[in-house]
Write a structure and sequence with these properties.
By secondary structure, the protein is mainly alpha-helical. The longest helix is centred in the last third of the chain and has 29 residues. The protein is built from 8 helices and 3 strands; from the N terminus they run ααβααββαααα. 17% of the residues are buried.
């Protein structure tokens, strides 16, 4: 095994940069009383059409389970940063909506947060480097985290919804495979039934 493999280096560098950036960015968020997931949730709502997302789309974007996103929204709702609205076209669905208080909290955090991003990340790259880097990150993100833009408007949101549906089908198929392997009698019957 080649321990100097460039693929290991690529993932190692990405991990180191991610950890280093989080360490540099977290103090401002903590000072505003926001955890990383709280900030991500509020920011995603702020950047969404109407400053709202269906709870299912918010869960997909943040990679939280349905119960996980419910807990986050419950906490943010208690703090007055988010509220829920029923979906008029689907009684089973609801929206998480950014409140004025949530928007105000973001507006107090963002100037220093953006400055920190510039100091420790984007400002280290030239304009062309940053453009290429962002395109590269999007290319990778669309493969490894296709639901990251679920619920977004336009073609991006539609593509994310299709990718999420395909990913859910793949996961269901993968989950079913071990169950079929664990029940060889049933699998043999299925194979026999398919044979002419």
């Amino acid at each position: 095994m080649n321990f100097d493999d460039h693929r290991l280096t690529a993932v190692g560098l990405l991990t180191e940069v991610h950890g280093g950036l989080l360490a540099r960015l977290q103090p401002v968020l903590s000072g505003a009383g926001l955890s990383e997931i709280d900030f991500e949730t509020v920011l995603r709502l702020a950047r969404s059409p109407g400053q709202r997302l269906r709870m299912s789309d918010l869960a997909a974007q943040t990679e939280l389970s349905t119960s996980g996103v419910t807990r986050v929204v419950d906490r943010l709702e208690r703090e007055g940063l988010v509220t829920r609205q029923a979906c008029p076209s689907d009684r089973r669905a609801s929206y998480a909506v950014l409140t004025e208080t949530g928007r105000a909290r973001l507006e107090t955090v963002l100037p220093q947060h953006v400055q920190d991003i510039d100091d420790w990340f984007t400002g280290l790259l030239g304009a062309e480097e940053l453009e290429v880097f962002l395109a590269t990150l999007r290319k990778i993100r669309d493969v490894v985290r296709p639901c990251a833009t679920a619920g977004a408007s336009g073609a991006t949101g539609a593509q994310a919804a299709a990718a999420c549906a395909a990913m859910a089908a793949d996961q269901a198929e993968e989950a079913a495979a071990p169950a079929q392997a664990a029940a060889p009698g049933r699998a043999a019957v299925s194979v026999q039934a398919e044979a002419p």
